[in-house]
Task: inverse folding
């Protein structure tokens, strides 16, 4: 089969195509023919510098998103049939219940190969059937950004109809967060460095937009837009540099969902980490900061069911062929996109 | 003045004589302490003020017990949210327990002679906190309770159950309720979980009691082996000396077989945030009770950025602010204290006239448990 490896991506910004023997499913495993994948901010971080597991092997297959069809069954697998359309989470061991940090050790596109390849052998218990109305391309955008936003907004964030949700920037998680929040009936305020992107986010469903380049203290705008009350839930996907602004933007009892921990600003520039000054607001406003580690298989199923029920389609900016993987990565890294970049196989 | 005061001092503690009749004739002024120039002298000043009269919906409370909290020192020294100048004329101390002496028009919630207490953010009765409630805060934005009498809204008052003494109840409104919210209401501790407290201040002592009441394992930290031994007498299962183990989170990991703690009470602020994060197990909760950049010895240090916030994500952690507690939570706490026969740990009692000695003693930091000032 053909696969891409990280190779010299850290310096060349190119992944390397290689030929590998077709994998064979062992007992309890399933061979999946990958039909869609695509890059996430997390994938670039892993390929460029590595995240918690350190710099990746040059032979690692990148990209943690996937949708595909069952091509062969290993011994003992009875709950799937050839041709079933499937997807899965990249921390595949988190099936249901509470997260355990040990589950991080089995992480597709970090400690295990990702899905920028034609075939993959994965555990049957990790797979999730894709409901009929959802295409491979749509399903392939969900495992990282879609599920992270789902957990942050719905499962853990528990946004309520009439509440106000704020997203920082217009990355993959933010776009999905807008969709999930509007599905539930929340008011959504997006922030961006670009008025044009704000308009595109409004077309997706956002109620208001704040340009954080013209309003660096964007929380003041959040307070103005909410008559001084503040936001009930803030999705912080850019890390510590914006923590003070997130705290300031919250109403009493507000929740800050911590999706990214790098010291980057709203436009993802790396900054020297400074001590947050407004942590006292945690107390005086009764706030909660909650870490979000993607989501479980069960949460993924909940998300797929709701998408089918509410006929929600992921926002796809552009689709590339497998052979154009490097063009897809270059395009995604430029940052002009809104929504996901899909690589179709 | 002396005669009047003397008469009141000799009143029996249940004050039945006073309550049965009217207030002693000729009593038109009460003794109070004001913050004054405490920030520079470390001394409160006693003054006389007119006796307060309860308005409609209010109750006149004869205060019988109060005492200092870390928070009170913080307010007296810095003004906290207010200005130091504004604080000077305020009566300090946010804890109280007392007896109902007079009812204002329309009061039905309490009766004469009822033994009562209340939270210092008195507008938070039930349900969700709202930040605007901070604007009415006894001992900060309005007078506290280091005085003989106070007119208070009846709706905020809570009846003290019979088995709980006025001295015991007077230790609860700040440290007791904060620990209750952090461990039980917001912290949601479960039997068999591990709770870690930092230091041995008022909140930590109560937290150890609430943690044990719920069947949790309690690990305390302190700079003193002697205090650790005393915390164990109160019920703590294990102690870590953070002076000999500055990376105390490693000791938490060892004590829990590498698993970590489910609930960490951070009552010292940001400087310990990284260690709190490191000591958590997956799904752990950190209750943030103090936000000043002080380390565990309560020394002010330069705030440096926490480096381990990534653990929030990798371990699925929660960092939650705790703002004392509501009247409803206070009622829950009192009910549980009666049911489980839990008594506050009291280090020492002082009389109203010896307030400054009480403050000196509290500030020395040798105490373990609360200091009660009998009024």
Result:
């Amino acid at each position: 089969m053909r696969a891409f490896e990280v190779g010299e991506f850290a310096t060349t910004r190119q992944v390397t195509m290689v030929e590998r023997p077709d994998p064979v499913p062992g007992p309890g495993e399933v061979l999946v023919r990958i039909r869609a994948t695509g890059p996430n901010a997390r994938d670039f971080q892993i390929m460029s510098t590595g995240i918690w597991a350190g710099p990746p092997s040059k032979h690692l297959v990148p990209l943690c998103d996937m949708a595909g069809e069952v091509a062969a069954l290993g011994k003992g697998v009875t709950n799937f049939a050839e041709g079933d359309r499937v997807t899965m989470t990249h921390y595949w061991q988190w099936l249901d219940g509470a997260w355990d940090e040990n589950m991080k050790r089995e992480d597709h596109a970090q400690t295990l190969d990702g899905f920028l390849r034609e075939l993959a052998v994965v555990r049957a218990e990790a797979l999730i059937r894709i409901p009929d109305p959802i295409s491979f391309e749509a399903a392939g955008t969900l495992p990282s950004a879609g599920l992270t936003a789902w957990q942050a907004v719905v499962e853990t964030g528990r946004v309520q109809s009439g509440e106000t949700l704020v997203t920082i920037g217009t990355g993959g998680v933010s776009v999905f967060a807008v969709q999930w929040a509007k599905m539930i009936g929340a008011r959504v305020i997006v922030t961006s460095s670009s008025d044009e992107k704000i308009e595109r986010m409004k077309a997706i469903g956002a109620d208001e937009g704040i340009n954080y380049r013209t309003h660096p203290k964007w929380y003041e705008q959040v307070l103005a837009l909410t008559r001084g009350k503040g936001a009930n839930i803030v999705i912080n996907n850019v890390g510590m540099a914006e923590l003070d602004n997130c705290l300031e933007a919250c109403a009493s009892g507000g929740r800050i969902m911590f999706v990214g921990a790098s010291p980057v600003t709203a436009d993802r520039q790396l900054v020297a980490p400074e001590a947050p000054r407004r942590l006292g607001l945690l107390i005086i406003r009764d706030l909660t900061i909650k870490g979000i580690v993607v989501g479980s298989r069960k949460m993924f199923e909940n998300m797929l069911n709701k998408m089918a029920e509410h006929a929600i389609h992921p926002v796809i900016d552009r689709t590339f062929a497998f052979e154009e993987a490097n063009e897809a990565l270059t395009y995604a890294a430029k940052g002009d996109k809104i929504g996901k970049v899909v690589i179709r196989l | 003045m002396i005669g009047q005061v003397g008469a009141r001092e000799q009143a029996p503690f249940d004050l039945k004589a006073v309550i049965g009749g009217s207030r002693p004739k000729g009593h038109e002024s009460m003794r109070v302490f004001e913050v004054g120039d405490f920030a520079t002298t470390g001394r409160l000043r006693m003054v006389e003020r007119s006796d307060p009269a309860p308005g409609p919906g209010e109750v006149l409370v004869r205060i019988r017990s109060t005492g200092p909290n870390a928070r009170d020192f913080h307010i007296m020294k810095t003004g906290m949210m207010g200005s130091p100048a504004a604080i000077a004329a305020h009566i300090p101390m946010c804890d109280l327990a007392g007896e109902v002496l007079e009812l204002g028009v329309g009061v039905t919630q309490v009766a004469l002679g009822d033994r009562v207490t209340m939270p210092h953010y008195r507008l938070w009765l039930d349900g969700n906190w709202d930040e605007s409630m901070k604007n009415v805060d006894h001992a900060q934005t309005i007078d506290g309770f280091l005085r003989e009498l106070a007119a208070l809204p009846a709706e905020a008052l809570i009846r003290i159950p019979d088995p709980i003494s006025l001295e015991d109840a007077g230790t609860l409104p700040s440290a007791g309720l904060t620990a209750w919210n952090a461990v039980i209401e917001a912290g949601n501790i479960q039997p068999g979980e591990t709770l870690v407290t930092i230091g041995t201040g008022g909140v930590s002592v109560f937290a150890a009691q609430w943690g044990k009441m719920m069947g949790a394992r309690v690990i305390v930290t302190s700079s003193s082996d002697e205090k650790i031994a005393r915390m164990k007498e109160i019920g703590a299962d294990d102690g870590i000396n953070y002076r000999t183990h500055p990376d105390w989170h490693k000791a938490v990991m060892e004590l829990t077989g590498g698993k970590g703690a489910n609930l960490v009470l951070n009552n010292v602020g940001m400087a310990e945030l990284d260690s709190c994060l490191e000591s958590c197990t997956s799904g752990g909760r950190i209750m943030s009770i103090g936000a000043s950049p002080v380390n565990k010895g309560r020394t002010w240090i330069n705030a440096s950025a926490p480096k381990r916030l990534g653990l929030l994500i990798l371990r699925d952690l929660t960092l939650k602010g705790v703002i004392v507690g509501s009247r409803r939570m206070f009622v829950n706490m009192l009910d549980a204290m009666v049911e489980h026969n839990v008594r506050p740990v009291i280090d020492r009692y002082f009389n109203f006239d010896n307030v400054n000695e009480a403050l000196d003693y509290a500030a020395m930091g040798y105490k373990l448990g609360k200091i009660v000032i009998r009024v």
